[in-house]
Amino acid sequence: MVDLKKYNLSGQEVGRVQIADGLAEAEVQAQSLKDYIVAIRNNARQWSACTKGRSEVNHSGQKPHRQKGTGRARQGCLAAPQYKGGGVVFGPRPKFDQHVRINRKERRQVIRALLGDKIRNDRLVILEDPSFEEPKTKRVSAFLKGAALQGRILFVGEASYMDIQTEGKKERISVPSLNLKAFSRSICNLPKAQFTLLPNLSGYDVALAHTIVMTESAFKELQEREESR
Description:
The chain folds into 2 domains: 2-45 and 100-227, 3-Layer(aba) Sandwich (Ribosomal Protein L4, Chain: A); 48-94, no CATH class. The protein contains 7 helices and 8 strands; from the N terminus they run ββαααβαβββαβαβα. It has helices at 21-24, 30-43, 104-120, 137-146, 178-187, 203-208, 216-227, and strands spanning 2-7, 13-19, 124-127, 153-157, 159-166, 169-176, 193-197, 211-215. The chain has a 6-stranded mixed β-sheet with strand order 2-1-3-8-4-7, with helices on both faces. It has a two-stranded antiparallel sheet with strand order 5-6.
């Protein structure tokens, strides 16, 4: 069993929380990790860069100079790429959908391995469930200072689930619980701090984060998932 530090919102350590060795020892092949990160990066691109060729630019079709007698090379149009305001040669064009599909099982294995790496390096801590009536960035900033947490911080909270109807299909989405709405807004103005829900946890965010701060309820939900594996 591995012990994780548990803090209150004042940044004081109030105890230790045990986690099963399964998650702490989780590993994945380096190639799977690379494929996952590359896919996440590619899927974040818009692929919408567009330049205009000589037939698309809004330019005069006038001939630059007469064909003969000037001693210069013959030219046919001011929209040619060698002229200012002319078309672009071999410039970027909008591409077809470049989405890379990530296997669900592989994605879960990578996220487990990245969380396991944070646990082994003592970079995952537990936070007592915060209670905010309204957003207060000072309270979260005081927590980070009291717990001596620096660098990029990823806060992970538990989620509530809501069923919605979209195009005749019923879908279940995750939304912040009532006590986390003000807490998540309190994090927005902090530099290098990010908030996400456990069901929406991205391995790319986990890899970038120096420390992960997980609420107690989210940690219990994570343990339940591990027990059901």
